[in-house]
Amino acid sequence: MPRTVRDVVFVDGVRTPFGKAGPKGIYHETRADDLVVKAIRELLRRNPGLDPKKIDEVAIAATTQIGDQGLTLGRTAGILAGLPQSVPGYSIDRMCAGALTAVTTTAGSIAFGAYDAVIAGGVEHMGRHPMGEGVDPNPRFVSEKLVDESALFMGMTAENLHDRYPHITKLRADEYAVRSQEKAAKAYADGKIQQDLVPISVRRTSPEAGETGWGLVTADEPMRPGTTLENLSGLKTPFRVHGRVTAGNAAGLNDGATASIIASEDFARENGLPVKMRLVSYAFAGVEPEVMGYGPIPATEKALAKAGLGIGDIGLFEINEAFAVQVLALLDHYGIADDDARVNQYGGAIAFGHPLASSGVRLMTQLARQFEEQPEVRYGLTTMCVGFGMGATVIWENPHFDGGDK
Amino acid sequence: MSTTAELLKGAAELFPDEVVTEAHVRHFDLPFGAGRFALITLDNGLDHTKPTTFGPASLANLNTAVDQVEKEAAEGTIVGAGVTGKPFIFAVGADLKGVELLTRHEDALAIGKGGHEVFKRLAGLAVPTFAYYNGAAMGGGVEVGLHCTYRTVSKAIPAFSLPEVFLGLVPGWGGCALLPNLIGADKAVSVIIENSLNQNKQLKGQQVFDLGIADAIFEGADFLEQSLIWTAQVLKGDIAVERPTIDRGEAWDQAVAKGRFIADGKVHGAAPAAYRALDIIAAAKNGDLQQGFDAEDQALADLIMGGELRSGIYAFNLVQKRGKRPAGAPDKNLARPVTKVGVVGAGLMASQLALLFLRRLEVPVVLTDIDQARVDKGVGYVHAEIDKLLGKGRINQDKANRLKALVTGVLDKAEGFSDADFVIEAVFEEIGVKQQVFAEVEAVAPAHAILATNTSSLSVSEMASKLKHPERVVGFHFFNPVAILPLLEIVRGEQTDDASLATAFAVAKKLKKTAVLVKDAPAFVVNRILTRFMGEIQNVIDEGTPVEVAEKAVEPLGLPMSPLVLLELVGPAIGLHVSETLNRAFPDRFTVSPNLAAVVKAGKRGFYVYDSGKPELDPEVAALLQQGDSVLTEEQVRARVLDAVAQEIGLMLEEGVVAEAQDIDLCLITGAGWPFHLGGITPYLDREGVSERVNGKKFLAPGVASVPA
To answer: Do A216 and B27 touch (CB under 8 A)?
Structure first.
């Protein structure tokens, strides 16, 4: 049977505000599944053209798939969100690139013709599920020196990346972090972020964390607008004595969820759904686990090659800021300035936070907004580093492209 | 300290054991830049199995929260304020334990006033107020929201009601005055009177919205978020809340009249609460809320100091607590598993029992009878009932298939019962027949199998006496209609052992019946009291009192139906049979009415004809009656009947038929539908002075179902 590959589009994406993990965080008493369920419901409310019965799959990512992030979250979240029982679902894990992988995996199935429209997203409640919860690494990793012992500790891998690129100094990382906070604050002031946030009701019973009772969260908790280099210079380097990686130039430990609608372009158009981005290519790549922050470089190389594009064709970048050093390594690789205007226009994870498996869709949602605003841009990419030595990159085309020259 | 705070402090001292509800105030920005909002969360700090209530200290906490919010509203630092509850619960109203403790009219008045004073402030803030009914809301919980400017309700809430009249109160924290002014008198009467008197029927979220009590409805999954988004839109003027105009004309009076008709039909004027509520609703027509609130305070205080409410709370607690933890039941760990049930007999009663066991236990149920036609008929009945459930959507096809496959019928008891753990007989009420049946069952059933009898009047011990293992025989006396009446009298025979009894109670629980442990005494509890009661009515008729006088004499009790209508429901022949049984046991107190015998002999199924649309004495029955010439007044009849009942209950307690008077009342409420305002019957007999007149003492200690001394 002959098959035709179909164009796949990003219809829409939303997310919960991100919270700080831990007993004082806004989501300390909120379940992870409820976060992603509320994101899915908002997505459906915003897109009444999508008949829920026509959703072919719910793919939800989580790194730690136990407790309220277990039980095949894609399926349970679909039921909890009120989707028809006929809509199936499953769970996905590629650590930080979970939601991104939920998008690419379902997109591949859409292109193949298995699905018309899906929900893809992710959630990570790092307060309820701290990194490494329940892990049981095979002792051979160490005994056979398959990976360096630092590979499991993301902060250490970031220090290793600084070692690999000595010219990426702590100062450069801090300067980058300050800019990320500034850009995020400006994006908030300009109302760019709020339009894709789902308000979440949160309960607090412990007075240590603030006023008790029910509240409503409408903004990201981790943001630190007004952060200065001076503020950052004195921070501890918890992963290495006299190191370079601090809480200020890295994303924190966060709670949050994202969800998106991915569909074939034909389906989107037939059903009157918005077409915010068109998928061009995607690629994943593996690198040494102890320098996992290097991952986006080979992943981007691969994705560009598959798309037949050069880095010069990319007009907008959404790079996950797990660590400033990892962003700078990618930018250096392509000779892009640290403060290039095409990169992370709304700021990044250093400001908003990085609830691991949810972040990929945040990058896409932001890139989609930038595409709308900048029709002169034709291509953009979303990329992230992934634990245990991987990178993930997706290249998108702007459907609003007006033929401009960028 | 404000006067309200002082009032509540005084009240709180009377109720030191209150489970105190906190009123947390939390501030946040609403979406769309609508401004800063203060949300009050009512939370008693316990999980959803312990719903949030309002006692005096809880009201004081809410008062303090409102102090804060009121100040912020006046200063303009907030644009609105809301009230919601902990997960799954909004608030379920006044803490009844606190109400029970009140002994003085002025303290009762203070509780009413205290609630009003606090709730009313929500209507008087400088900013709009919002109630978000997120979960179960009853009584004062509903009322706190009625004082707010706007309300939203969750589609997921299972229970929303103003149950006060059901218990013997009025919605006295604003409900009677506010609700008709919000949704009109007709709908308010439905909620306050009709639902309450209809076994405390609960509203679901959708009905709350459809009635107009809530201005918006949202699904449970993100109810609070959507409510707050709606709030922001209302405050910004993007959503205008429109409510239908209330008809303050004749419709209002008609609604109140309808309410009185409903109340008369249910309690026949015997309980004051519904009428007090209707008076306030009637007066609320002029829209003067404060006048309504004052009337509520008075009504609450009067009712709290009255016997009907105390009986109502007592009855409610019997059903909710004692009914779930039967007095005298052995350790439940002794119970053996029941994985297959046998039913001897395939007649109507046996078939109903088979259906009940099947639905609740979901284990194989096998019917036996003396010929194949009867067995087929029994199984056919069960299948037909399953199909009815399927047709009504109560069960799905898979469940119907499962249940049908579980029920079988055989002629050979050995084949049917060889692996049954529980065998119940529902054959002809004749001791020899029953002994024969049990002997046959014992010969084929496993040694551990419980042998249960649904006898209504025979001795369980005698039935067991000829068995090799009499210790496993229990009485399992259901009430007709089996599917509806909750009571199950579990009879311990002389030799019944604890394991068998524990198994019987475990089965009863699975059957969702209210089990009461009774001694193996003639006709057990309900039938004995009803028969004595009916017997006395028949006696006065036989002696010469006109039927209608005898019938009207007990109307003030507010029983679910008149004595002769009840007799018709039971069947005159069965009534006669039970009276004969009891007459044999207690010939000095139980008579056999010659007139009843004549009616039965004439083949009449009842005393009344309904050709005119209402009951009238059947002329053929009238012709059969042979009456004496002693004509009593209604008062005299009532006294005789109540004296007889009090005497019988006194004797039953002396005999140890049940553990306490509470069990008698629980049986009458759940097995005969006797009303809450009588507390079953002993609270009424106590408060009317009958108990002391007949037995020289009250059945219950002061405070148990009455105002504490």
So the answer is: no
Rounded to the nearest 10°, the torsion over CA A66, A72, A76, A81 is 90
Give the best residue of B21, B26, B231 to mutate against chain A (max A CB count within 10 A): B26
Rounded to the nearest angstrom, the minimum Cα separation between A309 and chain B is: 41
pLDDT for B17-62, tens place per residue? Answer: 999 999 999 999 999 999 999 999 999 999 999 999 999 999 999 9
Q: Which of A28, A125, A162, A354 is catalytic?
A: A354
Search chain B and give the residue with CA nearest A37.
B221
Query: What's the confidence (pLDDT) of residue B347?
Result: 87
The set of residues, in sequence order, having a beta carbon less than 8 Å from that of B386 and lying 6+ positions away, is B355, B395, B400, B403, B404
Q: What is the mean pLDDT of chain B?
A: 95
The residue to which tokens 């029920």 are assigned: B407
Domains of chain B (ranges, CATH numbers) = 3-305 (3.90.226.10), 332-519 (3.40.50.720), 526-656 (1.10.1040.50)
For B304, the token pair is: 């709290």
One of A129, A333, A385, A400 is an active-site residue; which one? A385
Distance from CA of B122 to the nearest CA of A (A): 18
Contact B117, B327 (CB under 8 A): no
- What distance in Å separates the CA atoms of residue B550 and residue B564, rounded to the nearest whole number? 10
Q: Where residue A158 falls among pLDDT bands split at 50, 70, 90? A: very high
Candidates A267, A272, A274, A368; CA nearest to A56 is: A267
Domains and CATH numbers, chain A: 147-194+280-395 (3.40.47.10)
User: Does the annotation mark A242 as catalytic?
Assistant: no
| pLDDT score of B3 more than 90 | no
| Cβ-based neighbours of A237, under 8 Å, separated by 6 or more | A159, A170, A243, A244, A245, A246
Closest by Cβ to A199, choosing from B27, B219, B229? B229
Contact status of A212 with chain B (Cβ, < 8 Å): yes
Q: Does B693 touch chain A (CB under 8 A)?
A: no
Over residues B269-316, the pLDDT tens digits come to 889 999 999 999 999 999 999 999 999 999 999 999 999 999 999 999
Kindly state the greatest CA–CA separation across chain B: 86
Name every chain A residue with its beta carbon within 8 A of the beta carbon of B222.
Answer: 37-38, 41-42, 201
To the nearest whole number, what is the mean pLDDT of chain A? 97
A167 is catalytic: no
Q: Which residue is catalytic, options A96, A125, A129, A162?
A: A96
Pair A16, A198: CB distance under 8 Å: yes
Q: What is the DSSP string of A106-126?
A: HHHHHHHTS-SEEEEEEEEET
Are the beta carbons of A199 and B31 separated by less than 8 Å? yes
Bridge partner residues of B40 (DSSP): B25, B83
Which residues numbered 181-200 in A keep a CB inside 8 Å of some CB on B?
Answer: 198-200
Inspect the interface and report whether the beta carbons of A213 and B27 lie closer than 8 Å. Answer: no
Do B347 and B426 touch, CB atoms closer than 8 A? yes
Cβ–Cβ contact A201 with B under 8 A? yes
What confidence tens digit (pLDDT) does each residue in B320-336 have?
A: 999 999 999 999 999 99
Residue A332 has pLDDT above 90, yes or no: yes
Q: What does the pLDDT read at residue A384?
A: 98
Sequence-ordered list of residues with C-beta below 8 angstroms from that of A290, at least 6 positions apart, any chain: A147, A148, A150, A151, A156, A157, A160, A389
- pLDDT, one tens digit per residue, over A10-61 is 999 999 999 999 999 999 999 999 999 999 999 999 999 999 999 999 999 9
d(CA B141, CA A31) in angstroms, rounded, equals 27
Identify the pLDDT of residue B4. 82
Residues B324/B300, Cβ–Cβ less than 8 Å: no
A52 has a chain B CB within 8 A of its CB: no
Percent of chain A with pLDDT over 90: 97
